[in-house]
Design a protein that fits this description.
alpha+beta; 5-stranded antiparallel sheet; 5 strands
């Protein structure tokens, strides 16, 4: 999906030395006005050094805006980003993201569903008990060495 934007203005608001937020005032190909805000860092000569999108889905747009000037027209291709990060409804977005993030480990013990969470709680409890026993043994051995 390609979108065309024209940068009408931008405004940098400094929060601390060299760090702040930048707001880009845009108009798309349909004449719709839009404001995109990102975190930004300025260099020594007050030029924007880096930007990071506040909203995850605006990342390709913010990256393109960082290298542009006022009155520039940019075309942003969202297709590869949309393939990598598909849109989901608000209700299932957290569950899907959490599940895929936790399942990305190359580990057979990764938490992949809420059902396996109970098993993992038991495993964590066992590890905690073993750690406590190890501390008790270490303390006992150190007391023997002292006498």
């Amino acid at each position: 999906m390609y979108k065309t934007y024209t940068i009408k203005a931008y405004k940098f608001k400094e929060i601390s030395r060299g760090v702040g937020s930048i707001s880009y005032y845009l108009v798309d190909e349909l004449g719709e006005k839009r404001v995109v805000t990102a975190k930004a860092k300025r260099g020594i000569i007050k030029k924007i050094k880096s930007v990071k999108a506040i909203h995850h889905r605006e990342t390709p747009l913010v990256e393109a805006l960082a290298n542009s000037s006022v009155n520039d027209t940019i075309v942003v291709d969202f297709s590869s980003f949309n393939r990598k990060f598909p849109r989901v409804s608000n209700g299932s977005q957290f569950r899907k993201t959490a599940k895929s993030t936790l399942a990305d480990f190359d580990n057979s013990h990764a938490i992949t569903t809420l059902d396996s969470l109970a098993i993992d709680k038991i495993r964590l409890l066992q590890l905690f008990i073993i750690a406590c026993l190890c501390v008790i043994v270490i303390m006992a051995v150190s007391n023997l060495w002292m006498y």
